[in-house]
Amino acid sequence: MYTREESSRLRQEFWTTFGRYMSAVPSVEGNNVNWINYHTGVNNLFFRMNVEGWEASIAITLEHRDLHLQAAYFEKLRTFKKMLHAELQEEWVWKLHDETNNRIISRVYKALPDVSVLNKETWPEIISFFKPRIVALDRFWENAKYGFEESE
Fold it and tell me: Which parts of the chain are beta strand (E)?
C-alpha cells in the first residue's frame, strides 16, 4: 500500500515520463503538441487518457452540462464513426450520458485492464497502449474537427 504522497508522486512521475516520451512525436500537422492535455479547440470535447485503479483508458469525452447539446455532439461524433474506426483500426465503446465522478458525460473509449500507474512494471504496457491511440485520434481530429466548427 502506498501513502497518498507516494501515490501522487508515482502518478506525476508516470505522466512526466509519458510526456517526455511523446515530446518527440509531432502532430499530424508537424507541430509540437501537449499529448497529455490535447487541445481539440472545441468547447467541452476532450481527448482524455486516464489510469485509475487497475485500468488505463483513453477516450473522447463530451462534457457539456446541457445534456441535449451533449447528445447532439455525440450524434455528430457518431457520423464520424467510420472515419474514427479507420484511424484506430479497432472498435471502441460508445456511451451516451454515462455517469462518472458524479457528472454525466458522453464518451467513446477503449480500456486496458490489469495495469496500474502504481506498478512501474506496467508502465511500458500503458505507454504502448496510449501512444498509438492518441496519435490516431490526432489524425482523426485533423479531418473531423471541421464538422464541429459550426456547432460552436
Answer: 45-52, 55-62, 93-100, 103-113
